[in-house]
Design brief:
The protein is an all-alpha fold. It is built from 14 helices and no strands. Helix 10 packs across helix 11. The relative contact order is 0.19.
Length: about 325
């Protein structure tokens, strides 16, 4: 495999990393029954705070921690509004995403295009020497390696542990979970904060690694909405969510490669819009059940595996309030 193709695949993994982290965070939040619609603004604000904190302290680790705290706080506002104040989570999240994005641009205007700490790629010993997958997956930044852990760790947590079963229960049947002694609203707060902190980490991944620095308008604007769409595309399952992030990043990188080719004369606007168009089409196919109907023509073992992998039902209690009384 030639170096140009390996570099392209490496770029896809790098660009997908923040989307994977943010989408896994939102998956954990929505699995608990809370809808965090503030992702776009939260990522932007976390990216700004993470960069400024890293610049002021001279430590990228301080920047990551600061970004995660901001992401958790934004998410907790939604949890407080929805659980304690009994307000509509979608409305609060939409307002917060606009507020956070504007706040980031206002507070960060003095730090625009200033060089600061950057987390570079650091090849993993042994693994990076593996053919093909080595230079693609194991010649990345620490954020990419953390994203791999998140993908498999969140899957194991949700589907292979008793606390993970309780986690899913409070998003599916909170009444039943409460009857078995689960503190539904407390856990919803916890998982909303955890998911929000991962969204904050995704912001830091942008400003400290993938799109290092801070600029106005933000380079990552719109990616929060993409992450929300990827969660739906992924059927709230970590493996599918990660696949959706890699597919979207692949389409983006492909569009960039085509733009650079002198032999292809396609309008830039059209190329940039292709990933969005394909994401919408995929969401429509998945949500309408068209893909599942196509599975009937496949052999039975494949049908069973496909149904489990392509299932896209949202958590039954997503966005609803639970009243212990």
């Amino acid at each position: 495999m030639n170096n140009e193709l390996l570099n392209t695949l490496n770029s896809i993994v790098s660009n997908a990393t923040p989307l994977v982290i943010a989408s896994i965070g939102e998956t954990l939040t929505e699995r608990a029954g809370v809808t965090n619609l503030s992702l776009d603004g939260s990522i932007i604000l976390s990216a700004m705070v993470g960069f400024v904190a890293a610049l002021a302290s001279g430590s990228a680790l301080v920047g990551i921690i600061a970004a995660m705290i901001v992401g958790a706080l934004v998410a907790l506002i939604i949890a407080f509004a929805g659980i304690t104040l009994r307000q509509d989570q979608v409305a609060v999240g939409f307002v917060l995403t606009l507020l956070a994005a504007d706040l980031a641009q206002f507070l960060g205007q003095s730090y625009t295009r200033i060089p600061g700490p950057q987390i570079l790629s650091s090849p993993l010993p042994v693994f990076s020497q593996l053919p093909v997958i080595g230079p693609v997956f194991f010649d990345q930044s620490i954020f990419a390696y953390l994203s791999y852990i998140l993908i498999f760790g969140s899957w194991y947590w949700l589907f292979r542990t008793r606390p993970g079963l309780a986690h899913r229960a409070i998003g599916e049947r909170p009444e039943t979970a409460f009857a078995r002694g689960t503190r539904v609203n407390v856990l919803r707060y916890v998982y909303t904060a955890v998911g929000g902190s991962l969204v904050g980490m995704a912001g830091a991944a942008y400003s400290l690694s993938v799109k290092a620095g801070w600029a106005t308008p933000p380079n990552m604007a719109g990616d929060g909405w993409i992450a929300l769409a990827i969660v739906i595309f992924g059927g709230w399952h970590p493996f599918r969510v990660a696949l959706g992030a890699y597919l979207f990043a692949g389409l983006r990188v492909l569009a960039t490669v085509i733009q650079r080719s002198p032999d292809v004369n396609i309008p830039v606007v059209l190329l940039n819009g292709v990933p969005w168009l394909l994401m919408i089409v995929t969401l429509l196919l998945v949500s309408s059940g068209s893909i599942e109907r196509l599975m009937h023509v496949l052999p039975r073992p494949v049908q069973k595996w496909s149904r489990n992998f392509l299932r896209s039902d949202p958590p039954a209690a997503l966005g609803t309030r639970f009243e212990p009384d």
